[in-house]
Amino acid sequence: MNFPPKYFGGFDEADLHELLGLMDKNYIGWAEYLAPLVMGVNNSEMLTDELSSSFCSTDPLIAKSFAKATFFSDHRENLSQVIHPTLIFQSDDDALAAKSVGEYMQNEIQNASIEIIKAEGHCLHMTHPEKIAPLLIKYLNEK
């Protein structure tokens, strides 16, 4: 969630409540709306359909509890306590987390590196493994 002026890149609280409200009104519609945002609208339709089906096969009450925990949990204050080397993969076109989110994390984590990936979507390991795997292997070999 946005916390101006220090942090932008998430969502406004009203937007998140609206998203949760959509879950109550039209759970299937919520899943069909969110899946392309997560995967990236121009990425694999198969992956988007798989994610949407996964959402739809989950008990709506459990999914809503998970969504609340995901969208309203805030542990930014813990980032400065991370002491392990960290590699952040950030899509340059992510509807869920703007590029500023990855940059914020890099600035807050002591020993963090960031790779901005020219790609769309939030789950780069699923939609662009051919870009992620070599960068991850290189990073691990250097550590």
Unreliable stretches: none
Order of helices and strands: HHHHEHEHH
> What's the number of helices?
7
- Ends distance: 32 Å
Secondary structural class? mainly alpha
Structure description:
The chain is mainly α and 143 residues long. The chain has two domains: 13-72, no CATH class; 76-142, no CATH class. The chain is globular. It is 55% helix and 12% strand. It has a two-stranded parallel ribbon. It contains seven helices and two strands, in the order H-H-H-H-E-H-E-H-H. 16% of the residues are buried.
Which helices and strands, and how do they pair?
Layout: H1 13-25, H2 27-39, H3 45-56, H4 60-72, E1 86-93, H5 99-108, E2 112-120, H6 124-127, H7 129-142
Parallel strand pairs: 1-2
Helix pairs in contact: 1-2, 1-4, 2-3
Task: Summarize this structure as a short list of keywords or feature phrases.
7 helices, mainly alpha, globular, two-stranded parallel sheet, 2 domains, 143 residues, 2 strands, 12% strand
Summarize the structure.
The chain has helices spanning 13-25, 27-39, 45-56, 60-72, 99-108, 124-127, 129-142; strands at 86-93, 112-120. By secondary structure, the protein is mainly alpha-helical. It folds into two domains: 13-72, no CATH class; 76-142, no CATH class.
